[in-house]
Amino acid sequence: MPSHLTRHIFRRILANEPILHRDCLRRQVYSTTRRSIQNPLRPLRHNGARNIARQQHRSFLNFGMFGAKKSNAKEADIDPGIEDMMQLAKLQRMRARLPPPEDIQEALRLFIRHKEKKKQAMSDTQAELALRALRFLSESSLNGLDSGAAGFQHLTRFETSCLSKVLSWSRTSPLLAHLEFLKYVIAITPKQSKTVYRILNYNYVGMLAHLGRTIEARQITIDIEGDHFGPEVEEPVALDDERSDRAMTAGSSDGPIPGMWIQVLKGFVLEDDEPRALETLRMLRERTWFNQQDYRIASVMLRLSINRSRLDDIRSWFAELWRSCQSRSLDRKTAKTMGMDLHRVLQWCLENDEFEFGHQAVRQATTGIPPKSVWDAIFVWAAGTGKGADEIGRMFGVMEKMNEEISDPEQWRLPDVVTINKLVEYATSKSDPYLAERFIALGQSKGIEPDAHTYQLQMEYRLKINDVDGALIAYKNLQSMDISSDKDLPTVNRLIVALCKGKRHDFDTIMNVAMDLSDRRARFEPETVSTLALLHLNRDEIHDVVDLLNTHAYHYSAADRGQIRDAVLAFCLDPSTPTSRSWDAYSVIYKIFEETPREPRTDIMKNFFARERPDMAVNVFQEMRKHSRTDTMPTVDTYVAAFLGSAKLRDLESLEVIHNQLKLDFNIDGNTYLTNALIIAYTACGQPRKAINFWNDIVSSKEGPTFNSIHIALRACEKAPFGDLKAKELWERLRKMNLDLDQSMWASYAAALAGNGDNELAFKTIEEAEASNELEVDAFLLGSLYDGGQSDSKQAEIEEWAKDKYPAVWEELERFGYDVDAESERKRFKIDRTVTP
């Protein structure tokens, strides 16, 4: 039985759900073979499914087979309300008629309640959309566009509470969009709602501190504290759905004001700004509510001392922290803090060879009856000082012996799987898989079986040494554990990436792991999505790519979406990628990553021109042209790149399509640079007479021609019938202006004359200019003149003249070598005559 079917059956059994397979092939065959015995009109039942006898028909007469193949692509997995807010943003960019404010209000409320229910943080892109929606509602209220009263309430107090809670989940890893959204919510929240207002500011201060704007956070804290508020939170109030306001006080049990000050102090420590941290500490001590025994302050200052590697300060703050913790009741939070800070101190001692202080810290920590989290930190310290698994096993006995002083068996300190996992984590950090295995074996010898986290760590250290097969075995062991906490997801994501990049495992192995995560409704990491997307693209499975991205891409931040898009873009632009797959990659970018800016799209357009597919390049250009975002619409540079692409391929059809788009584009102001590109393109595409007509546009423009414009115009004259007349007219104007004409300009003029068969005038012009010291005949000039020859006989005439007049220069030119033009079958010397706009 396939593994995925086995998992399906067991999950159905655990969920107490029936196992239904209504399209079982065996049952269909069984039903047809029983018709001679059973009434064919009588339905059969199997697994609760109704199986109707199928009528025989001739499949070759099924004319539906000629219909279009149906796509079973999944719809985009977008949070409720987001689609309406995305549409609002698009309509605002297009300056079109906006939706009713009531619809946007309902969408915003749906989104906030959904996020709170799912306990999901919002991405920065979602925060931007929500901010745009809230601003739209506020502006509609001010302008009287909504049907409500003047005091239009966009969010209820409960919804504001939910929003505060959702934003708090981004407090330690915020982006600018989260900050701007929260700032606007605070601005429209009345100060009379003291509880809501203060908790919003609590989260705002935390975001500022983590974004490196702690000075601003401190000033806001001072302002909030002095704004007629006491340090304590008001009593919770009943909200719309009769739920209490507990959500608003989460994370600030001692009141939001002290919590805000602690966040400010942490912010300065994160910035390693010691003077301001000490200044903030002094301000804290001046507060009437300041508690000398607040272990949070000692913990933050201990971290600053460790960052600064000052032993005396570490010793002092560690002692202060330990006194503060021991003065409190030993609850779970205090015990966890003691273990974490002791671990941090001991790790610093290991890294800086401060073993003496480390032993002192251990002795201080073991006075009395330390909590188990402290013992776990001590065991890791012992491993760091070189003790093996057997010695640490004996230390377990020392800890267990102290249980004689504890009367309550539930409070006994016993080694458990958390202890083993801490040791395995240490071994993993030291890239010592053998030691990690010894610690796992130590636990098993004590009757401690590995849990999900153990197997996760096992996967991590095996992936660290590129043992993908070993990590896969650990993953299979992990599947039998309770993984409802989803803590293993980052490691499983890394396993999928390693399987894809290793290229040693088959597709089914990779998909089995990926499908396990999908069945758990887990969110893939951006690197996993991009790796799987490339895997599917290389297998021409475009619908699977779209399904994958529709499932995950709309839940990522802008940076994460950009990471995935860049991976697909690199695949698209890779010259080794077949054109069909390159087009598939572009289709994915077009469908999923609507925000892709102009530059990558221009690169894609150039990519298809380079692949000699102007039809695809024009399609990319037209989709840019139809876009609603100003940072995506084509600019002059985009048009120039498109014209030059058509010129290189000499594809008149694509050139005319793009030129017609330019005529209709009111966002583009024509200039010399753009017109130069048009002349180059039409000249290359066999329309030099049309190209010359654009010269008048340049001359009559305010900007006027550049030297490049003159070269380009002369090149058009070289190719156009009777172009020598226009070239002579242009040359006379240049001579009258007494411009300093360089070698390349003389070469372009001579080639324009030769291009129309007037070799005699070209020879005369060159000889007279040389005689008057206006030019020095070189290989480039003779090569340009020769390339301009319109027939073999004319080229032979030029060659004969050059060998006679300038034999040394001609020999130098011949050393460049030549190619044969595919269209005219005439020789072209390998000199660079390209012109640029």
From TrEMBL:
<dbReference type="InterPro" id="IPR011990">
    <property type="entry name" value="TPR-like_helical_dom_sf"/>
</dbReference>
<protein>
    <submittedName>
        <fullName>Complex I intermediate-associated protein 84, mitochondrial</fullName>
    </submittedName>
</protein>
<dbReference type="InterPro" id="IPR050667">
    <property type="entry name" value="PPR-containing_protein"/>
</dbReference>
